Amino acid sequence: MRLERVRLRNFRGVSESVVDLSPGITIVSGPNEVGKSSVREAIRLLREVKHSSKSQAVKSVQPVGRDVGPEVEVHLSSGGYRMRYAKRWIRDAFTELEVSAPRHEQLSGDQAHDRFGQILAETVDLDLLSALDVAQGMSLERPQLAEIGALHAALDRTAAGAGHETGEPGPDGAGHDALLERIEAEYRRFFTSTGRPTGEYREIGASLPDLESAAADLREQSRVMDRRTNDHERESALLIDDQERIGRAGARLETWRARDRALEQLRERAEERDRDLAGAELARTEAAAAREAREELISALARRTDHLAAIRLEATDLAETARPAGERLGEARERARVAGTNLEEGRGRAARATKALERAQDSTALIELRRRLDRAREADGHRLTAVATLEGGPRVDASTLAGLTDLATRVTLARRAREAAAARVLVQPLGEVSVLVNGAAIDAPETRHATDAVTVEATGVLRVEIHPGAGPADLEGDLTRAEESLREALAGAGVASLAQARRVAEEQTEVLTARDRAVSTLTALLDGQSIPELAERAATLEARVGVLSEDPDASVDELRAAAAEAEEAAARAERANAEAQRALEAAQAASREAETALMRAQVAVEQQGEEHRVEQERLDRARSTLTDEAVALGVESAAAALDRAGRAAAAARAELVGADADRVELELTNADAALVSARERLAGTRERLVGVRALLEESAKAGIYDRLAAAEAELGAARAAHERLDRSARAIRLLRETIHRHRDEAHRKYVAPFRDAIDRLGRLVFGPEFGVQIDENLQIVSRTLGGDTVPFDSLSAGAREQLALLGRLACAQLIDADEGAPVILDDTLGFADAQRLEALNLVLATVGRQAQVVLFTCQEDRFTGVGGATTVRLPTL
Q1: I need a surface site. Which of 23, 76, 297, 856 has the fewest CB within 10 A?
Q2: CB distance 846 to 761 below 8 Å
Q3: Strand 454-458 and strand 870-873: pairing?
């Protein structure tokens, strides 16, 4: 068979391609994916697949995205035939065969396909055609040559011509093959190709164990029927027992479920008592914190009072003239003390009202939770208000206030020093004439410092203007600098005066205290939760408890009225205290006329008095909210409530422990599992009973004894038939083994010429010391080189590829050109180095003189050493 031309159209990525092949060696070259492998695949599809096929192999060669049919046309000669054979698949599919020699034929469709197959079967060995076609990636596989008849005939002729025959006359080739076919056909009646029984011989042989087993089963069934009857009676009794057991297990489970429900009520009661205990602990913590804060306020005020008394005593020692101011200060203090006493009484009344209100409140968990929620929201509101207040105004902390106070003191000292250095004017009215000083009438002696212009006028009598002289420059500069520093500091603090700074500092202290107290209260109230979570818990309790019957008695309003009255009394006391403070400031102003030491003492008294007033007001405000006695009583009440809640919680837990929850849980689980087990046992018993009953009914209907007699008769007939067939099978197997033994002996004789052909080609590649060993299947099993023999599978990939190619080329060289087939090599010899490749080029050129070789490659330069080769370069797609 010789390929002359291959034309592809719409085949994978190839729109149109024509390849002309020489009768010798043709090298088809081109880059990757240009369609080289498509040419080889197209030849195979043309030969094997009908045009009507819709197989995946056909679909895979249709161009992607194009509604066209792949088409292949081949011009070839085989034997005495010259042909053009063409096919198209999928779209407008057809098959055409045109034979131009030895006589003209023109066929289409399946007739063309079948005729082409007949011609190939007549003129070329199809196994040879497949063996010499090497697809891409298959070059390492050894060709299967043992069943190629054309190779056998060629080897027989070669062996006879080379003197390899044994001298024994052999059968005629055609007659020998016919005899082998007849023996093989008869052998195949009894055995498969692997020697296993087949056909009637296998079926009867395979049926014997089944027949014997069936007879044994029937005999066993006749013996087990009585046992099944006993099983039925036993399972029926077990069914009744299992039903009674389920009843007992259900009653026990219901008993323990009732115990579990009671236990759940105890758990809920214990959890409620635990919540009461947590609330009591929170109340005690708050009361203790309030007491500590009150004690700290009282202690701070006491320290401030002691310090104030000390500096006042110092001021008294310095100037007796300050005694009237001190007396007025004492009177103011007395008035403040009286106001404080009144305030304490009001707070006592408020505390008693609060205590009565607390006794009136409902102590249930829902009301306690609502109280916590309301207080938490209130505390959060105080916190947010405090934060907004802090962020919205000026900021004056303690250090800033101290700095401003110090600067104001410096201004006062500088001003008084300047006044002390200036002249003094004493104006004293003596008669009935009205006297004006700087436009203001006076009726008592009055002293003025002449630091600025002073005008004294007696109406209708005289007018005197006194202008200050030039005072000491350093005193004036000190005053200017002190006032400038104070203005800058006040502007930096964002206030207009020291009094405003004190008010801002006091307000900020109160806001910070309120914020910290709100945060502390909120943290204690929430106890790791959030306000939405408390609200959710309250909603859950409301859903569980329902509507509460709260008694809105009038005592709550009375207590609130008492608290309002106490607050009003505190307000009056605060106003009285304010008047006393103003009187104190007037007394301090009168004492400023003392000497420099007295002035410093008075400034200190004024400062400490102001701080004392702030702390006193802070304490008064705290007491207006809650008296000291109420704070102490709140601690005691909270402790008592905590003790009661603790005892109640302990009692509830003790009751829960006494209920033995672990045992109830275990008993309940066990009772539930026992009921499940009893039901499973009942289901199992019912299932077994149904099965036994079905088996009994089946056995009763089966007619076991009649079936047993028929089975034994069938078994006897099968044994007789199997013995007859077994004798025939053993005879044909002996004949086949004898014939094959003689054939294998003949095969061993023509292995020599095949080995010689490979050796001749191989020495061109590997050198004169090359040799191979060939088995009876004409496969290369080892290679010998330089005296070292290596099994084929142990050779490198390159050596295996080269030996496999030598085997194919030797086969193509041995077979007559008219009976042979083309050697098609797709992208082979990729493992060969440059030296081996050069030698293989010589081998290909040698074989190409006797056989057609088609070599597809993307590296044309690797085969430039193949003499006489025709090169076809495929264009880029």
Answers
A1: 23
A2: yes
A3: unpaired
Question: CA-CA distance, 513 to 80, in Å (whole number)?
Answer: 119
Phi, psi of 26 (to 5 degrees): -120, 130
- Provide the 3-class DSSP secondary structure of residue 550: coil
User: Rounded distance, CA 622 to CA 520, Å?
Assistant: 17
Question: What backbone phi and psi angles, to 5 degrees, belong to 535?
Answer: -65, -40
CA 85 to chain centre: 62
Strand 454-458: give its sheet, edge to edge: 440-442, 435-437, 454-458, 462-466
C-alpha to C-alpha distance for 835 and 221, rounded to whole angstroms: 80
Q: How many CB atoms lie within 10 A of CB 514?
A: 16
For residue 361, the model assigns a pLDDT of 39
Alpha-carbon span 820 to 58, nearest angstrom: 28
Please indicate whether residue 498 or residue 525 has the higher confidence score (pLDDT): 498
Say what the pLDDT of residue 142 is.
83
Provide the mean pLDDT of the chain.
80
The answer on pLDDT for 435 being more than 90 is: no
- pLDDT value at residue 8: 94
Q: Following DSSP, what letter does each residue of 5-61 receive, concatenated?
A: EEEEEEETTEEEEEEE--SSEEEEE-STTSSHHHHHHHHHHHHHS-TT---HHHHTT
Identify the CA nearest to 212 among candidates 778, 673, 714. Answer: 714
Please give the distance of CA 566 from its chain centroid, rounded to a whole number. Answer: 64
At residue 465, what are phi and psi to the nearest 5 degrees? -115, 125
Q: What is the mean pLDDT of residues 303-312?
A: 85
- Number of Cβ within a 10 Å radius of residue 325: 25
Considering only CA atoms, which of 486, 487, 453, 448 is closest in space to residue 467?
Answer: 453
How many whole angstroms separate alpha carbon 376 and alpha carbon 279?
13
Smallest CA-to-CA distance from 469 within 424, 415, 412 is with 424
pLDDT in tens, 379-431: 778 777 877 776 766 767 778 878 878 888 888 887 777 777 666 777 878 77
Q: Which residues contact 648 (CB under 8 A, 6 or more apart)?
A: 273, 276, 277
Q: For 767-868, where are the alpha helices, taking DSSP H only?
A: 797-814, 834-848
Q: Which of 742, 757, 741 is nearest to 145 (CA)?
A: 757
Place of tokens 């009583």: 633
* Closest-CA residue to 653 (of 272, 260, 258): 272
Q: How far apart are the C-alpha atoms of 523 and 390, rounded to whole Å?
A: 21
Q: Is 460 helix (H, G, I), strand (E, B) or coil?
A: coil
Percent of the chain that is helix, strand, coil (3-state, to 5): 70, 10, 20
In 51-193, DSSP assigns E strands to 71-78, 81-88, 94-101, 105-108, 133-134
Q: What is the DSSP letter of 876?
A: P
Identify the H or E element spanning 538. Answer: helix 531-545
Per residue in 185-198, pLDDT tens? Answer: 888 888 887 888 88
**Three-state secondary structure call for residue 789:** strand
